[in-house]
Amino acid sequence: MKPAHVAVSFFLAATLLIPVPASQAQSDSRTVTVFAASSLTKAFSVLGASFQAAHPGITVRFSFASSTTLATQINSGAPADIFVSADVSAMSSVVAEVPDPIAYLVNQVVVAVPRGSKIRKISDLNAGFKWLQCSHSVPCGIAADSALQSEGSVTSTPVSLESSDASAVAKLLAGSVDAAIVYKTDVVANPSKLTAITFANTAAASTQYQLGISTQKRTAKSHWAQTFFDYLKGHNAKKLLAASGFTISQ
After folding, report:
1. Which one, 16, 20, 96, 212, has least CB within 10 Å?
2. Which whole number is the average pLDDT over 153-181?
3. Does residue 5 surpass a pLDDT of 60?
4. Digit-coded pLDDT (tens) for 113-128
5. What does the DSSP 8-state code read for residue 123?
6. C-alpha dihedral (191, 195, 200, 206), degrees to nearest 10
7. What is d(CA 28, CA 80) in angstroms, rounded to the nearest whole number?
8. Alpha-carbon distance 177 to 126, whole Å?
9. What does the pLDDT read at residue 216?
10. Residue 113 β-bridge partners
């Protein structure tokens, strides 16, 4: 081996032996990473801030997106300590990382329209109005498909299929469409702007959220992940989530 190669090899080997600075390791152990369905953004942001205020020095870091997208990221190695999925199928796909989830919340899709809208019933979507829903592969879209099939009165088609509930709500609030099939909790979060038209079959329109904690074995970090996990199941969290329009599963 040439001398230059020896030097490079020695340098690489040496860098592998350099320990992580104690301050960085401590910082990592005091950060809890939560992957959660986008429909939980408002409520969980409040819960995270409340938890941090009660535990100075602890950081709760959220990643909000479609549950399907988050599950794909977890299976690709993304370091999630806690996962909250908007349906059972997304959680089931990460069973190797999150093996023992619990039934957590129930939400249901509705036809959300701006206050003062001429849309008064679900069949009005056939009257030339522009409406959208979530993609067929994500929880809010799966629930929308189930609700529409059960209703049986809508023959028109959505002008777009959104990648997440948050995207669908944003377009409705921006005035891009006349209506959107989104979660009831989105209407509760925007009471002065939106009103909901419910589907007759609420069971068909409902989706089961699940809550799970990762099996990653990091002793210092697992303490705070478990603590926040328990907090999400506690009375104060359930009270806020119920006020946000969710039905508590347990």
Report:
1. 16
2. 97
3. no
4. 999 999 999 999 999 9
5. G
6. -50
7. 13
8. 14
9. 67
10. 195
- Tens-place pLDDT, residues 11-34: 333 333 334 344 444 456 799 999
CA nearest neighbour of 179 among 126, 123, 107, 130: 130
Which one, of 11, 160, 136, lies nearest residue 66 by Cα?
A: 136
Domains of the chain plus CATH, in order, are 18-106+209-248 (3.40.190.10), 107-206 (3.40.190.10)
CB atoms within 10 A of CB 197: 18
Q: At what angle do helices 139-151 and 165-173 cross, to 10 degrees?
A: 70
**How far apart, in whole angstroms, are the C-alpha atoms of residue 223 and residue 198?**
42
Pairing of strands 82-85, 31-37: parallel
* E-state strands within 94-216: 102-114, 131-134, 161-162, 179-183, 194-197, 206-213
Q: Which residues, 6 or more positions from 122, have their beta carbon under 8 angstroms from its beta carbon?
A: 111, 151, 153, 154, 197, 199
Give the closest residue to 33 by CA, choosing from 43, 22, 19, 44: 44
Q: Which two tokens stand for residue 156?
A: 């028109």
> What is the rounded distance in angstroms from the CA atom of residue 72 to the CA atom of residue 94?
8
pTM over 0.90: no
